[in-house]
Specification:
The chain starts with 6 loop residues before the first helix and ends with a helix. The longest helix has 27 residues. It is about 60% helix and about 0% strand. Helix 1 crosses helix 2 and helix 3 packs antiparallel against helix 4. It has a domain of about 120 residues: IL-4 antagonist (De novo design) like domain (Four Helix Bundle (Hemerythrin (Met), subunit A), Up-down Bundle). The chain is an all-alpha fold. It is built from 5 helices and no strands.
Length: about 190
């Protein structure tokens, strides 16, 4: 399926790959003070961007017996999760945030590409369980929340429901961030 991506999707994935290799996060860097020109040459104004999230770190229950899992089990699910967030932002969220109509080609691209973002996490789910993560553990719940968010993304794209774009964006980001936190807490 990925062979049919548009040029824009290919560029997004290339940038995302470089970002992952460089250790990027979803949070923008802290705002630097800026100077605002004013009539008086000695006057400066310092501004700080508001926080982009209100997430509170959770207390993640350890695995039975204090067992830890290999980091690769988490990473194999995290890359497509991050790709889904970046992709959705590029094809839908950015348009809605700019008060623009989401183009039909964006909906079509989502329907074509988004199912691929579920593949990695779906493959990792049984591997996480096999490695000792109970099915009722928060890691599995976070992974399932991501899969549900992609299902909602696909439904929004099918119905071209722009009113739900930001809600899906929040769910994808929350699920990705929650999984990174929970899986990170139990990996070796």
């Amino acid at each position: 399926m990925l062979g049919y991506m548009t040029h824009r999707a290919t560029k997004i994935i290339a940038v995302l790959s470089a970002c992952v290799l460089a250790g990027c996060t979803s949070e923008p860097p802290a705002a630097q003070p800026t100077t605002t020109p004013s009539p008086a040459p000695t006057t400066t104004t310092t501004t700080t961007a508001p926080p982009t999230t209100s997430r509170v770190p959770r207390q993640i229950e350890p695995l039975p017996g204090g067992k830890k899992i290999a980091a690769t089990l988490c990473r194999q699910a995290q890359f497509p999760m991050h790709s889904a967030v970046v992709g959705w932002h590029g094809v839908a969220t950015s348009y809605v945030q700019d008060n623009q109509r989401v183009p039909d080609r964006s909906w079509e691209e989502t329907l074509r590409v988004a199912p691929d973002f579920k593949d990695g996490p779906m493959r990792q789910r049984p591997l996480l369980i096999q490695a000792g993560v109970p099915e009722n553990h928060v890691v599995i719940k976070d992974l399932d929340a991501f899969l549900a968010a992609v299902d909602q993304e696909l439904e929004v794209a099918r119905t071209k429901n722009e009113a739900k774009v930001l809600e899906v964006d929040r769910k994808l980001r929350d699920a990705r961030d929650n999984f990174a936190e929970s899986c990170g807490a139990i990996q070796s």
